[in-house]
Amino acid sequence: GALLVSERIDREELCGTLSPCSLSFEIVVENPLELYSGTVEIQDINDNDPVFPSSQARLEISESVAAGARFPLESAQDPDVGINSLQTYQLSANPHFALDVQTRVDGSKYAELVLEKELDREEQRELHLVLTALDGGSPPRSAHVQIHIDVVDANDNAPVFNQSTYKASVRENTPSGTLVARISAYDLDEGPNGDIVYSFSSHTPAKVRELFALDSATGELRIKGQLDYEETKLYEIYLQAKDRGAVPGVAHCKVLVEVVDVNDNTPEVTVTSVYSPVPEDAAPGTVVALLSVTDLDSHDNGLILVQVSDVNDNVPKSSQDSYDVYVPENNLPGIPILNVSATDPDLGRNAHLSYTILQADPVVGHLFSINRENGTLYLLTSLDHEDQVEFRMMVQIQDGGSLPLSTNVSVSVFVTDLNDNAPTVLYPHPNTTATYTDVVAPGTPAGHMVTKVVAVDADAGYNAWISYTLLQATDPSLFSVGLHSGEIFTARQLREDDAPQHTLVILLKDHGEPVLSASATVSISVAEMVKEVLTDLTDVAPANDPRRHVTFYLILAVILVSAAFFITMLSLGIFKCYKWRQSKELFNSSRSTLYRTPGPFHHIDAVRGGFTPPNFYHQVYLTTDSRQSDLLCKKPFTSSPLGSRQSTIRNGEPGLYHQIVGTASRLPTPAE
């Protein structure tokens, strides 16, 4: 079971810059069968020196550059990782420059020269510095580069980028030549000093230069090589803009390019045979082979998908358990009034829903229809609020599974009222030949109610609220009408010189929109006696109204029912009083004499009727005929003069057994 190294291991050759560097393997153990996965991590040692791209570097810096200006230097590369990789830079001592060591996103280091003291070409035309790169090994390994700085006359305006950092995202399979980003800088100088040339910064790694190309004139950064997400996920590219002056001005910017993973790696299936050949009598469940699947892609691109088939295990669920719909009456037939919505988390036919109306009321089936596919409820005919105000139905929502599941939703449709009925006059009746004349005596004071206009409106609510106004009158100053009651009053006291006959036209209006109205004509006679009125109306034959006795019959029926109820209650009270007095007399007579003559009240009847007082107890054996029985009276539980006596009278076989409670202080006589 020992794991041995078969050849020399070079971590940099196996993994490059990836850390940690690991090799995976699987071990199969038989008897019993077990599978183990293992990983060997290759640890780095400090066996590589940092290396600069070249042994010398030359910079041209104008003497007009102000203190604080920064100049990137070429970076050294160290293939080791971790603490053994490049850790820092050191600069030889000098009066003008300091070294600023920065860290990239991937953890690598790079150095920049920072001008601390302005240069003077007349004082010193060139400078020689030494840049040292150190790793973190023990002892540390190092590399050196000679930096030669030429101090030139000033080009007093350097290029300026419109932003210091650019960001872009590209897919790893992006073809060569695709535009990644476009950088832009400007220079206020004119002529060659204002012409800008774009290039990679001196410390840009060679790998980046192989993958990306920069147009020196336009600043367009394009794909040059083949990107690989599994190798590098983010590139940090440093670019510069330099003018064409004798002493060129330089500006720097950074472009962050994020590589987006694509599913460009097929899963790799590894089959490990553990039992071959397989005998024909192998038991079910015997392991034949082990399979492992790997995919180098990331996130969802690296999953292995297993399809799960759907089972119809979810009942359709409506967004509401019940719906209330309000529809104005006199609607257009065929309009949609409601959409019943439901969801089913199942898939395919198991989630296909159909909608039907359960026909509990046949009227609903003639008035309403529902679309089976989308649950839209339609109204087939025009509704009338005065005919029916509310309709109730049950909508069934069913899925399309082989064993369908369903749910029911209640729907209530309320018909709202419209003002489509004018007021109807009940009194005086407008459609009869009879003339209704009301009589008022001369001298009647103001405020006396003469008659009343009675009307109804078949509509509801505000649409049925009727107002009454006096539209026309023989004498407008004599009568007034209640706005909401329809009662006609005298507006002033009647005088002898007032006209004997008055005709009033009352206008009735509802409060709907639009307003509907009707009118009623009322005739009023001013006379002392009804005889005078009849003399004036002898030429008018009264019409027989079959409804004029309805009120009389109703009042008579109420009186008769009340009288019958009163007589019944009185008789019941007398009967109860009579029964109570009989029981009281029986109780008094039993205390005054030992024997008494039989009367209409029998002891057994008293027991059955509940009138026997509850302070005495007997056991009585009776036949089905309570008046001819064998009576066995046992000793009472309370004290009595005859408490020790027991007598038996036999006239027949014992029948029923009763327990009797009584107040008598003696035993019943044979006659009783």
TrEMBL record:
Superkingdom of the organism of origin: Eukaryota
PROSITE patterns assigned: CADHERIN_1, CADHERIN_2
Database matches in SMART domains: CA
InterPro entries reported in the protein's UniProt record: Cadherin-like_dom, Cadherin-like_sf, Cadherin_C, Cadherin_CS, Cadherin_N, Protocadherin/Cadherin-CA
GO annotation (BP), single: homophilic cell adhesion via plasma membrane adhesion molecules
Topology relative to the membrane: Single-pass type I membrane protein
Gene Ontology, cellular component aspect: plasma membrane
Domain (Cadherin): residue spans on this chain: 1-52, 53-161, 162-269, 319-425, 432-544
Keyword tags: Calcium, Cell adhesion, Cell membrane, Glycoprotein, Membrane, Repeat, Signal, Transmembrane, Transmembrane helix
Pfam families (alphabetical): Cadherin, Cadherin_2, Cadherin_C_2
Alphabetical list of SUPFAM superfamilies matching this protein: Cadherin-like (SSF49313)
Record localization: Cell membrane
One GO MF term attached to the UniProt entry: calcium ion binding
Transmembrane segments: 552-575
Keyword Glycoprotein among UniProt keywords: yes
Name by which UniProt lists this protein: PCDGK protein
Source species: Anhinga anhinga
Gene name of the record: Pcdhgc3
